[in-house]
């Protein structure tokens, strides 16, 4: 029986794409330190109910994760006289890995510019990777111009959940170079540290948030359904490296179900997760970039040769899924993801995972996201059309946790 529970937990966490990291599975209920009494990692507290009803939907967003089987592209390519440092293909981990990946790209670009002082370097793209590349370059002393077709708040990055998920659909474990796991770890550690420099700053662009991972008492036949039950592309062995960060990422602990307010659950875990309030974070990054003398120009490129015609001869390419068309990169696969947004409830200060659904409150709305079926869901689909029926079905799976929220009276 314990094995069954563990397997269930693994399935739950797989659906979240590293929501709390593998460390969550091995954590114990207290943290023991030599010479100190073990301290509890949880105290029960009153929490506000979430108004989990389709009537509360304010928008439904869809975007494609830029998945590359070998992992993000970070090599250097010469196009005519121009040196292009690639920085794209971060799957479901673009925000999480942004600072670390962009730090690597920026240091390469500075070295290639060959100039002491203040070289002028271009960044293509204004999503998570473009903005952090531009800032990393400025912090190294460069003058930076961003060229992008879309800018904040209209990039795909703005449609992300905003959780710390550094190995969510980051690569195919069977297609990566042997040194990729170590590179991933370096990116993750630099990112985790840099994101935390925004903690406690105005507008709370980055926060740590309480999280409950709940298992249903009666999962029912549907809950056990896996992606492989349905026809589709062959299963990918998505890389999982969470264990490499066990020393820095908070772990979840098992807690007594009766110390939670949620009815009908068989087991519960509690933890703390890094959360990006993306609307505020992207706005902050744009402002910092412009205050640092950065310039943004709206521009669409149709071929690499157009990039070679720019005045800047060192360029960081952060075009995300756009690189598939621009660079004819066929290793790039879209992975569709949808979020239903409920009207914000500022009093809700915790997220939860239950019945294959992630629920995450943000100042700009409450994320309700289906994770049932695992990481293959949406694989190969670049359809960005919102699916209202899916949104409502996802909300209805979590609604039983909040029985005090009454359905509306008939009209
Ligand atoms: C539903 C969903 C939830 C997600 N949740 C998370 C999460 O919780 N945590 C996390 O870390 N990641 C998450 N992700 C993944 C994350 O959103 C992506 O990895 C990230 O947004 C990629 O950023 P990017 O800057 O590479 O691409 P984009 O945001 O797509 O930016 C690309 C930029 O390049 C420009 N561009 C593209 N082509 C051209 C061209 N030809 N000419 C000029 N400009 C061009 C675009 O206009 C844009 O400015 C999620 C993704 C989805 C779909």
From TrEMBL:
It catalyses: a D-alpha-amino acid + O2 + H2O = a 2-oxocarboxylate + H2O2 + NH4(+). One of its GO terms (biological process) is D-amino acid catabolic process. Its EC number is 1.4.3.3. SUPFAM superfamilies: Nucleotide-binding domain. The keyword Cell inner membrane does not apply. GO terms for molecular function: D-amino-acid oxidase activity; FAD binding. It is an enzyme of class 1 (oxidoreductase). One of its GO terms (cellular component) is cytoplasm. Residues 121-405 form the FAD dependent oxidoreductase domain. It holds the Pfam family DAO. Its cofactor is FAD. Keywords: FAD, Flavoprotein, Oxidoreductase. InterPro entries: DAO, FAD-dep_OxRdtase. Belongs to the DAMOX/DASOX family. This is D-amino-acid oxidase. It comes from Brevundimonas variabilis.
